[in-house]
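step: validate -> pass
step: tokenize input -> pass
step: predict -> running
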Amino acid sequence: VPLAPVPLENSLETLLYASLLLLVARALVWRAREHSPAATFVLAFTLLATLLVRSPLAFFPAVLLADDLRRDTSWNTVRAAAPLFWVPLLLLLPWAFLNWRMCGRIIFLENGRSALNIVTGAMGLVETYPGGHNHAMWFANLQPGDSVALWAVRRVLEHPWPYLLALPFRLMLFMKQQPLWLAAGAACLWLRRGREEYRALALLTAFFVVLHCLLAVEKRYFMPLWPLFGVLAAALVSRALAPSRARGRLAGAWAAALSVSLGFSAYTLGLVAAYPSRAAVAATDFQRLLREQPDEPLLWHDAGKRAWAARDTCGAISNYARALR
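step: predict -> pass
step: emit ->
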């Protein structure tokens, strides 16, 4: 797998997501070739693995279903694609339950992580700023409880030109990163467009790029896609994606990578499911430590951080003051 286009100084999260995106692409190729239940389930599990890191592919199953219905509008098509929806949804229930226990809301993906991208994108910025949900609320002059998405829709409808003019510049930002890899990968997709698996990969890459171009971005957002373009570039001069014995030689590596990915996903979801009860025990132990060591300033400083995180301003001030005595 050519990882050269992804700089090693990038974050571990970006490299992890790039690897998972390659697994999704491989599962997508399998499903395009066979359209079997096994291939669909494997694709669903690889999509779940990406959602545990970042959420851009959350709506990709809907795009796949629309593409399937374009060729066959029967109910069997919908039923065959159903695992792409219910498998990730079902296995994300521990995460939704954790958010409900900790935040009082059911959240299946991240909470406000893309808010600043949405706000700055609606304003017409090409690249966003580092920051989170609170920065987005400040940029948009929103109050707690206001919807960032609704604000962005209203902003674009009232001032469409800044948003529309920023779209091609975001696309150019992507294209300028690795023009040779992009040209080689695009040439491969075009020359082999008659084969189902290459059309599926073209759909994946187009979805990924278009989705990110709808919001204000950072250059690193496109990094996970470049290893896939490296594979496509290699496919121009090899038979790595061709229906030949080469697939059999790579089957072991593909199965090993898939097993590792699914194993870590299961482990992560297990930790998520256990966290509410473990957090309750940790909170009880922390209160016991405070009672046993009431003069320890580090404990009161930690208590202040916990109160601030729980939006207990008065309690946070009191605990921080106790830590400074």
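step: describe -> The two ends are 58 Å apart (CA to CA).
step: cleanup -> pass
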